């Protein structure tokens, strides 16, 4: 008879954030698959839980996923945990979950604390639409690709970053995305938790002067409507109305659509714009 795989969220710093359901699962499972067995052992010892541990991390997850699923198929109940937070979210776990679905192995998610949502709420930025992109890439080529992808996002943007690269990353953000509002959450739920709110430039100056330590979550304001309007205006503000109409037509709009777009952009009546289009073919 098949057992079950449990994806268990664990505290991201404060051990009191563990849920009763997570504790029950860890107590009742047959064994625990852990990102770092030393870290998980401390958690289990704190709550006086004794369980066999399986090492499951990013360097062995492809091979270990097969072993773990085989144990579940044999009837074992196995809990998967990461060092902190939810497995599969910038931590090992997604491969195991994907294979469990593919092989029709039953699994259950036991929700818990996550730095992403906690930082978003702390940020006081827009929470209605947000995008989490994990850790900032280390290589410049990968960073360029990331910024090319996100530079026009209106969503609030959330990233993880190392204390060793945060100053460089802030400079990079300012150069590529401008001096937007940002919240930088450090050591969330831990003893020295702190939240910096300001502009990217202010954050750069602060952390350049105050050596950053600990784990960081960056919550960055998305592109504002004002920025979008300003950039769109810059594409035509030095054009004549005739040239503006032609530009819109070259982008694939009909003459009628172009007149409508130009009128809206310039805050003019369509009839007034039409007068400039009479000689345009």
From TrEMBL:
One of its GO terms (molecular function) is rRNA (cytosine-2'-O-)-methyltransferase activity. Its EC number is 2.1.1.198. It catalyses: cytidine(1402) in 16S rRNA + S-adenosyl-L-methionine = 2'-O-methylcytidine(1402) in 16S rRNA + S-adenosyl-L-homocysteine + H(+). InterPro entries: 4pyrrol_Mease, 4pyrrol_Methylase_sf, 4pyrrole_Mease_sub1, 4pyrrole_Mease_sub2, rRNA_ssu_MeTfrase_I, SAM_MeTrfase_RsmI_CS. CDD domains: RsmI. NCBIfam families: 16S rRNA (cytidine(1402)-2'-O)-methyltransferase. Belongs to the methyltransferase superfamily. RsmI family. HAMAP family: 16SrRNA_methyltr_I (MF_01877). Catalyzes the 2'-O-methylation of the ribose of cytidine 1402 (C1402) in 16S rRNA. This is Ribosomal RNA small subunit methyltransferase I. It comes from Clostridium cellulovorans (strain ATCC 35296 / DSM 3052 / OCM 3 / 743B). The gene is rsmI.
């Amino acid at each position: 008879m098949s057992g079950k795989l449990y994806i268990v969220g664990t505290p991201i710093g404060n051990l009191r954030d563990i849920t009763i359901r997570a504790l029950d699962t860890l107590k009742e499972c047959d064994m625990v698959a852990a990102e770092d067995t030393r870290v998980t052992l401390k958690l289990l010892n704190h709550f006086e839980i004794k369980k066999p541990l399986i090492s499951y991390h990013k360097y062995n997850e492809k091979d270990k996923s097969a072993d773990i699923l085989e144990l579940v198929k044999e009837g074992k109940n196995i809990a998967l945990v990461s060092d902190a937070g939810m497995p599969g979210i910038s931590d090992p776990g997604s491969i195991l979950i994907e294979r469990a679905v593919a092989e029709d192995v039953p699994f259950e998610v036991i929700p818990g604390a996550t730095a992403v949502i906690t930082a978003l709420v702390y940020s006081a930025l827009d929470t209605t639409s947000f995008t989490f992109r994990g850790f900032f890439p280390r290589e410049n080529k990968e960073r360029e690709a990331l910024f090319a992808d996100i530079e026009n996002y209106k969503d609030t943007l959330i990233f993880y970053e190392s204390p060793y690269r945060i100053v460089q990353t802030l400079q990079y953000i300012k150069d590529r995305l401008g001096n937007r509002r940002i919240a930088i959450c450090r050591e969330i739920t831990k003893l020295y938790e702190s939240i910096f709110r300001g502009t990217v430039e202010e954050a750069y100056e602060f952390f350049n002067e105050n050596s950053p330590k600990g784990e960081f979550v960056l919550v960055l304001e998305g592109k504002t409507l004002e920025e979008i309007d300003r950039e769109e205006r810059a594409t035509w503000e030095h054009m004549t109305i005739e040239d503006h109409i032609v530009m819109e037509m070259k982008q694939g709009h009909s003459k009628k659509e172009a007149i409508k777009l130009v009128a809206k952009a310039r805050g003019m009546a369509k009839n007034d714009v039409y007068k400039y289009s009479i000689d345009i073919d």
